[in-house]
Design goal:
407 residues, alpha+beta, Aminopeptidase, Alpha-Beta Plaits, 8-stranded mixed beta sheet, 4-stranded antiparallel beta sheet, 10 helices
């Protein structure tokens, strides 16, 4: 058990979530939003003030730093990584962070009429008696992944103040645009120089992930013919109707709201347009690469089917692979999972090896040659207004990171 200043860690987290750092999947710039650079500059200043070395803000908005080795033994260089951006699925502007007192197991009123309830989120019952951090329910909180940043910085601060704890060289990286799938696009892999790394970007306490989805994004465009409805018979081809038919052709039970664990899905994410043209954005996910290929093949088959009905070129399907399951890159170096398990056991945390129903920067980094599993931060309900973070879980994350970099 290490002594940590709970108040200081909470205030550090508050300073991070006070900044709106939402990324934008429609942007063509990198980072996708300039406001991410505000946090990047803040972190650059904070890491420098703490006494970390090789603190750098790259031209692409990555913040890098080094906790130098204080051991005479040869030890691996370990990377710790978290992302600065937050999801744009809920507002991250003007976050009003609240620290709820010892949770009594009932409803938590975030704001008048906005209730965080164990009836909707049963996992809340696991944290009876604990302080819980929330927003006021009008915005997301930002624990994904500012809790990870907070834990990494706090662990490094603790190690700097306790030089008697021997550790090897630790490299830090705080990345932009993870939420829009571009967090590794300009990652300085060679200069980062770690032998392996961990993203600190997981959920509930104890989570340890080395399996992610294989991911593909799809854009389906429906081209209709717009004619005045009064004279539309045998002339109009309604793109809205075509898009609705497409949705009905998808396997009904293979959507996110019906799946869990290793079950993949089709998810219609966003739709826009009108009679003349509709654009549908989808994501396809599966832990099994062959099953993902089958999902892609189904969309292409549906495209051919609808073009046969409505005319060639009426439906266009574009597919883009995004990341792959990191498992195949982690298994040959499984000892890095065992290192994380040992760190958790040493701090009284029971490891929970669970598949990620999503992706992390670590999936792409593993594919690029930097094995990079994922460790919990303690947060729940990411990307929404009912996001929450139990304080003891965040503190345990810091403890685990301190143990992780030791021998």
């Amino acid at each position: 058990m290490i002594e940590l200043s709970q108040e200081k860690i909470i205030e550090r987290f508050r300073s991070y979530v006070s900044l709106d750092t939402a990324s934008d999947d429609k942007s063509k710039t990198f980072p996708s939003t300039a406001k991410q650079l505000v946090m990047a500059h803040l972190l650059h200043q904070e890491l420098t003030a703490l006494g970390l070395q090789e603190v750098e803000l790259t031209e692409y908005g990555y913040v890098l730093a080094t906790l130098p080795s204080n051991s005479e033994e040869e030890r691996p260089v370990i990377g710790l990584i978290a992302h600065m951006d937050t999801s744009n699925e809920a507002s991250g502007a003007n976050v009003k962070m609240q620290v709820q007192p010892a949770y009594d197991g009932g409803d938590i009123m975030l704001s008048p009429g906005i209730i965080l309830s164990p009836q909707d989120f049963p996992e809340l019952k696991n944290y009876v008696g604990q302080e819980i951090i929330t927003s006021d329910g009008t915005t997301l909180l930002g624990a994904d992944d500012k809790a990870g940043i907070c834990a990494i910085v706090s662990a490094c601060e603790y190690l700097l103040r306790h030089p008697e704890i021997r550790h090897g060289k630790v490299r830090l990286a705080f990345t932009p645009d993870e939420e829009v799938g571009r967090g590794t696009e300009h990652f300085p892999l060679q200069s980062f120089g770690a032998d392996f790394a961990y993203t600190v970007d997981g959920g509930a306490i104890g989570e340890l992930n080395y399996e992610t989805f294989n991911a593909c994004n799809a854009t389906i465009t429906f081209y209709g013919v717009s004619v005045h409805p009064g004279s539309a018979k045998n002339k109009m081809r309604n793109a809205v109707t075509m898009a609705a038919k497409w949705q009905m052709l998808l396997p009904a039970g293979e959507r996110p709201e019906y799946t869990e664990m290793y079950e993949g899905f089709y998810h219609s994410l966003r739709v826009s347009g009108g009679t003349d043209k509709v654009e549908l954005e989808m994501i396809l996910r599966d832990h099994n690469r062959q099953k993902l290929e089958a999902r892609k093949a189904l969309l292409l088959k549906m495209t051919d089917y609808m073009n046969a009905e409505y005319g060639v070129g009426s439906v266009v399907c574009q597919l883009e692979d995004v990341y792959c399951n990191m498992k195949e890159y982690i298994m040959p170096v499984y000892e890095i999972i065992e290192r994380a398990e040992n760190a958790m056991h040493a701090t009284g945390v029971e490891p929970q090896l669970t598949p990620v129903r999503g992706g992390t920067d670590g999936a792409r980094l593993s594919e690029m040659g930097l094995p990079c599993p994922n460790i919990f931060t303690g947060g729940h309900n990411f990307h929404g207004r009912f996001e929450y973070l139990p304080v003891p879980s965040l503190l345990k994350c810091v403890e685990v990171l301190v143990k992780l970099v030791q021998k």
